[in-house]
């Protein structure tokens, strides 16, 4: 059918034509927003799940919900080996600009911007030459004596407090969204936890919403033991049958097209209900169909096409990041799990490769750092990418 009208949207962070199966999370966040705005104690939400299940998309939806209520909102994507100060400053700058539109006292807004600038300038290493110094694009003079101590924990508490007060002036709040939360560095995790703790105690209307891989809870509790009490972890998973059907059917119907019952079933089977795969196989089936409706035959014809695209865009781009030694490790995991998405014992991986477990620690740690695998439970390891084992077994090298 007409590729121009193809509604499906495979791609990282791509807004799906139909956000299916996330009503529970959306409803929970409604409650969070309402409670936080009223100064009630509330735990922050952290979405966890495998690659491609729709964490980034959902985070974007939660952000939109906050903005619709007149909140200030900003988003950060954490990166390994990079501090949070700069991206955090940019995200809060965004949030302050949202709030400024509704604020009646420009001088109050300016003074908070001054504190933000002071906070941001601290991202420059002490003694950096003027021409090497990074300049945040904030159009006010930097304040002094607030959020600029250089101790990220102290600075965050002060900055969050000031930004939250600005929101309080206009009767709303601030939502700070942090994607790829497993990549936040230990010092920054500690500081974030401490700041969230402090703010929730004072009833300030600021909420941190995170998203990341399944081991985020372990990463956070390693830095601050009380993180369990600060965050409510919500597991985002593949779509159930009815939701997956809605994700495919609703966009097709909106284009005045149709799909047969068995084609829908075949799409569910091949995609396993994983949102990324739902989009990828749905898109290919639409393009392969010579006419309306999309049939099971079209789905069959389209599958290799979809798989070829996934092999490059979804699996390949990640596989490329692994060194030869790491690829061996991944391959052994795939062999052991026989292509199913299951955790395997790290000792069995070592056994399979005929190596001592300790000698494989560097490869494993590096794969964790690259976000390709995670430690599901002590002594076991799993792929963060669904169907990754199957993909590896299908390669000839
Ligand atoms: N609820 C949903 N219903 C249908 N499609 C969805 C849904 N959520 C996400 N998708 C689709 O799934 C794909 C992946 O979404 P997204 O990038 O948000 O995943 P992610 O969990 O952030 O992945 P990663 O861990 O790689 O960052 C996108 O193509 C998006 O359109
Ligand atoms: Mg994402």
From TrEMBL:
The Cytochrome c domain sits at: 168-334
SUPFAM superfamilies xrefs: P-loop containing nucleoside triphosphate hydrolases (SSF52540)
- A Pfam short name: AAA_16
Q: State the InterPro entries in the record.
A: AAA_16, Cyt_c-like_dom, P-loop_NTPase, WH-like_DNA-bd_sf
Keywords linked to the UniProt accession: Heme, Iron, Metal-binding
Query: Keyword Iron on this protein?
Result: yes
Q: What is this protein called?
A: ATPase
Sequence segments annotated as region (Disordered): 1-20
What organism is listed for this UniProt entry? Gandjariella thermophila
Name the domain of life this protein comes from: Bacteria
Q: Which GO terms describe its molecular function?
A: electron transfer activity; heme binding; metal ion binding
